[in-house]
Specification:
With about 400 residues, the protein is an alpha+beta fold. It folds into 3 domains: about 110 residues, Butyryl-Coa Dehydrogenase, subunit A, domain 1; about 100 residues, Butyryl-CoA Dehydrogenase, subunit A, domain 2, CATH 2.40.110; about 150 residues, Butyryl-CoA Dehydrogenase, subunit A, domain 3. It contains 11 helices and 9 strands. The longest helix has about 35 residues. The protein is globular. The termini are far apart.
């Protein structure tokens, strides 16, 4: 890290594009992550638990709900919101996913699709970390095909909706105060969104066990059996899956930023190790093949950050399209995968042990590679933009 607070792996000085206010906020966030989260990250990951006591601290940094006037603490750009994801993920991808779910997906759904009254009710306390959100879209039999294959249903009876179905892989859902549930209206066949409170009768969230990636994230299987939701808790500005896509675009770019945070964290750990580990009487950092791996990693981190920065600039200019988000997510998660693999190779056998700083990134990368749209689905979105032809089944 340089005297200006710039990360060594920020080789093209992207952090310098932040405003002075954003730069100071990034440094405050980095201090919190290094001081409060890093010492605990491996232990909580190993035990597959979430550090609930850190939620007030991350909320106090002002990085939850930064996209919405009802909850943001200061004016900020999409570039800052992305850089914040990097700062969190370079320390702990599980914690970054927690923030991304409650701040990006859950608050994003309310910010995009909620009425003025719903935004006023939920966004301020969520931004303060007093209300935690989850986002229930994926189902046991509907992942990549949720646009057409959603099986959870919503039946309207007067001013009440009845939800029935199941969701899977829902982050935060075991402890979230509210979960945004997406269901198909049986009358018009369109997808609608509902704010479901954790104590709603018929709502059940069970933790998914035996995960080997993002172990700190509390993913859940959700069952909905005759769950009653008042019309007042239906997102008033979501009437189709197309409306829902307005939530997913920014969060997909957010995952690209998170991927670069994971890559950056793994690269930093590999550099530290290479300088300390000696073989044949020299630090392994002095050997050509090790330097090649580190140089290739730095290039991939730099290229991925460049894609993220441009996607953020397009977002701020109101010019970001779905294919921009899809390319960023696909490209950056693929580069992340390469980086963590090389970083693990630099550490040799020690690369599979938590104590040496790379194994957790290596494992967590696999989940980030898949969620928010698989690599294959995102490349098809880009392919459609390139060719004008739909290749989805």
């Amino acid at each position: 890290m340089t005297a200006t607070g710039r990360l060594d792996a920020d080789f093209y000085h992207f952090q310098d594009l932040l405003t002075p206010v954003e730069h100071e906020a990034a440094l405050r966030l980095r201090d919190f992550m290094e001081r409060e989260v890093r010492p605990l990250a491996d232990d909580y990951w190993d035990r597959a638990e979430f550090p609930h006591h850190l939620v007030p601290g991350i909320a106090a940094t002002g990085v939850i709900g930064t996209a919405w006037p009802e909850s943001r603490r200061f004016e900020n750009s999409a570039l800052f919101r992305g850089w914040a994801a990097v700062e969190i993920a370079r320390v702990d991808a599980s914690f970054a996913t927690f923030v991304g779910v409650t701040s990006g997906l859950a608050m994003g759904a309310i910010g995009v699709g909620g009425s003025d009254a719903q935004r006023a009710e939920w966004l301020p306390p969520m931004g303060r970390g007093e209300v935690i959100g989850a986002f229930g879209l994926t189902e046991p039999l509907a992942g990549s095909d949720t646009a057409r294959g959603l099986r959870t249903t919503a039946t309207r009876r007067g001013d009440t909706w009845i939800l029935d179905g199941a969701k899977r892989w829902i982050g935060n859902a075991t402890f979230a105060d509210i979960t945004l549930i997406w269901a198909k209206d049986i009358d018009d066949g369109h997808v609608k969104g509902f704010i479901v409170r954790k104590d709603a009768p018929g709502f059940k969230a069970e933790k998914i066990e035996r995960k080997q990636s993002l172990r700190g994230v509390q993913n859940a299987d959700i069952t909905l059996t005759g769950v009653e939701v008042p019309e007042a808790d239906r997102l008033q500005r979501i009437d189709s899956f197309k409306d829902l896509a307005g939530v997913l675009g920014p969060t997909r770019v957010g995952v690209a930023w998170e991927a670069m945070g994971i890559a950056l964290g793994a690269h930093e750990a590999a550099v530290r190790y290479a300088k300390e580990r000696e073989q044949f009487g020299r630090p392994i950092a002095a050997f050509q093949l090790i330097q090649q791996k580190l140089a290739e990693n730095l290039a991939d981190v730099t290229a991925g950050l460049a894609v993220c920065v441009r996607a953020a600039q397009l977002e701020d200019a109101g010019e970001r399209r779905d294919e921009h988000a899809a390319m960023a997510k696909a490209f950056c998660t693929a580069r992340m995968r390469d980086v963590v693999a090389r970083a693990r190779a630099v550490l040799g056998g020690n690369g599979i042990q938590l104590d040496h700083g790379v194994a957790r990134y290596f494992a967590d990368a696999e989940a980030v590679y898949s969620y928010e749209g698989t690599y294959d689905m995102n490349t098809l979105i880009v392919g459609r933009a390139v060719t004008g032809h739909q290749a989805f089944v």
